[in-house]
Amino acid sequence: MTRARAVVVAVVLGGCASTAGQVAHESVVAGAQASDFTLRDLDGRQVHLSDFGGKVVLLDFWATWCVPCAAELPQLEALYQKRQGEGLVVLGIDMDGPESVAQVVPFARRYNLTFPTLLDEDTRVINIYNPKRVAPMTVLIDRRGIIARVRNGYNAGDEKLIADDVANLLK
Question: For each of the chain's 171 residues, which pLDDT tens digit applies?
């Protein structure tokens, strides 16, 4: 591999978290009140975090260029399908920039995502919850609007940890 190509690979992969399953401490912390926000979904509708008061909310920050995100999203979709009737809401927050945002709709369709996918084109929400732009990153919010867990990255098997955290909050 040429040096220039190695640099490009490092830059592309550098945005994806390699610290899968670790609890994040950089931006938001467990025990803090979740900040409300409003973003557009893929159909152009406004979605407010506050619309889901009384539910357990999992925010998933992802991007089309992130390989671990592509592995995690089907797991989150399965969890959403299994637990939405119990009060789980999954909100996918896309972190693609102008160069790749056009790929978001086909990507969401390819993975059959039924939970809302939100676009944060001006990065307001990303700047609050994920200023280091770790991908993927999940923020789990309890029924009272308190951040219960923040996780950076994804490795196969992490879905069990996430499912356990969700189950505990849904009790």
Answer: 443 333 333 333 334 543 344 444 346 888 999 999 999 999 999 999 999 999 999 999 999 999 999 999 999 999 999 999 999 999 999 999 999 999 999 999 999 999 999 999 899 999 999 999 999 999 999 999 999 999 999 999 999 999 999 999 999
Nearest to 12 by CA among 62, 65, 64: 65
Residue 156: alpha-carbon gap to chain centroid: 16
pTM: 0.85
Q: Are 47 and 39 spatial neighbours (Cβ–Cβ below 8 Å)?
A: yes
Whether the CB-CB separation of 68 and 155 falls below 8 Å is answered with yes
DSSP state string for 90-154: EEEEE---TTTGGGHHHHHHHTT--S-EEE-TT-HHHHHH-TT--BSEEEEE-TTSBEEEEEE--
